Amino acid sequence: MEIAIIAHDGKKAEMVQFLNQHKDLLLNKNITLISTGTTGKKVKKAGFDVTRLLSGPLGGDAQIAARVAEGKCNMVLFFRDPLEKHPHEPDVLMLMRLCDVHDVPLATNPATADLLMKAL
Ligand SMILES: O=C(CO)COP(=O)(O)O
């Protein structure tokens, strides 16, 4: 299955920590990771195999949203930073909307993502 991982700047360290906590599961379950550009760079540096798309502000969220709409992406882990403003907020909302339209599991914080990992 394909899982998208995205983290705003203030949440990137938490994303890497989260992935490390679930490393065994992510490596053993035939899971493919995709991500927005800068998140992917950090995640790759931490030793994970990930397909990087464009950076969020340049359209990365929109690319992932398209994969959700096409039925290619099966889960989205999106650690948003609710305390920061983002120029591409419309793209962020579109991604979350399409997850709801297509009933694709979406976690926007580590606690929820943790529950989704338990369900895998
Ligand atoms: O902005 C983002 C999500 O909206 C994340 O993009 P980056 O991973 O490129 O920082």
Salient structural properties:
120 residues, alpha/beta, five-stranded parallel β-sheet, Rossmann fold, binds 1,3-dihydroxyacetonephosphate
Topology:
Blueprint: E1 2-7, H1 12-21, H2 23-28, E2 32-35, H3 37-45, E3 50-52, H4 60-69, E4 75-79, H5 89-101, E5 106-107, H6 110-119
Parallel strand pairs: 1-2, 1-4, 2-3, 4-5
Helix pairs in contact: 4-5
This protein binds 1,3-dihydroxyacetonephosphate.
Describe the structure in your own words.
The chain is an alpha/beta fold. The protein has one domain: 3-Layer(aba) Sandwich (Rossmann fold), CATH 3.40.50.1380. Helices cover 48% and strands 17% of the residues. It is built from six helices and five strands, in the order βααβαβαβαβα. It has helices spanning 12-21, 23-28, 37-45, 60-69, 89-101, 110-119, and strands spanning 2-7, 32-35, 50-52, 75-79, 106-107. It has a five-stranded parallel sheet, with helices on both faces. Helix 3 links the parallel strand 2 (32-35) and strand 3 (50-52). Helix 4 runs parallel beside helix 5. The longest helix has 13 residues, at 89-101. The N and C termini lie close together (10 Å). The relative contact order is 0.20. The structure holds 1,3-dihydroxyacetonephosphate. 1,3-dihydroxyacetonephosphate binds next to helix 3 and helix 4. GO terms for molecular function: methylglyoxal synthase activity. One of its GO terms (cellular component) is cytosol. It catalyses: dihydroxyacetone phosphate = methylglyoxal + phosphate.
